Amino acid sequence: MKLYPIQFKPILKERIWGGTKLHELFNKESKSSFIGESWEISNVPNDVSVVTNGPLEGKNLNEIIALYPDGILGEEVLAKYGLNFPLLFKFIDAREDLSIQVHPNDALAKERHNSFGKTEMWYVIQADPSSKLIVGFKEDSSKEDYISNLKQNTLLNLLEEYRVQKGDVFFLETGTVHAIGAGTVIAEIQQTSDITYRLYDWDRVDANGEGRALHTDLALDAINFTTTESKINYNSIPNQRVEIVTCPFFTTSVLAVDKDYLWKKKKNAFTVFMCVEGKVEVHYNADSILVTTGETLLLPAEIEQIDIKGNATLLEISI
Known about the structure:
With 319 residues, the protein is mostly beta strands. The protein folds into two domains: 11-232, Sandwich (Jelly Rolls); 241-318, Jelly Rolls (Sandwich), CATH 2.60.120. The chain is 15% helix and 39% strand. It contains seven helices and 21 strands. The strands form five sheets. The chain has a seven-stranded antiparallel sheet. Zn(2+) binds at residues 103, 120, 178. This is Phosphohexomutase. Keywords: Isomerase, Metal-binding, Zinc. Residues 8-114 form the Phosphomannose isomerase type I catalytic domain. Its cofactor is Zn(2+).
């Protein structure tokens, strides 16, 4: 069978800090007032994405990779990761502040959880006027300083805050202490991992008066206590790929199109598009797919080129 651009059913996640913007802005189908995340493409165990279009409709991501491993993943990805889809794509709505947290690197995550680590990046789609993100330390710190401030409930004194607006990009290496602030909607690209160490949760409790678990001891070996340059500066150029993040796990470019654009792949691997503004039609062979704000599309590795028609800002992600 000839493979084609593939769409998946979003996996919606209720979170204590979630809201309604994923429904209001992106038309995600939910009546809940606490939807914090839409997992767009995932093969996290028990949360594997299901195809919604074309001949593969109804099959999940792992099933289609098993059927067409080279055609979907590509030789380079297959050689490095086997049949494992290595990335997880999300949209996040933070009605309230997320916990201050950190993610372990590959070695620590493998040892403790038999999982990948969680290198990730954020693209801010929408931000209320006072929205902010917490990313890293203001100055080089230490375990001793960190523990002391954690005990005194003054951890925020050590951490760097950024006021944010639409289009801001942050790259978070494993070990970077961080939190998404209230009033932001974010596209998140990350390694396939659901390992999070929660450091502080704003003394928040649920309907039963219970706080969420903290992972103080586990986090100590995962934290990078030195300062990091996480905010990415870039200039978007109409109808050109502009690379914004490159790391061993993924490369992300911004592609802002306002006219017909012939897209050609860069390497023998799958590509994912996340539409963060506007809408486009993706034409491949005799078929076309409409992709609108808040939607995600997987291009199997065997697809060499597509025609993009419309006016939109796309994140283009490949390995």
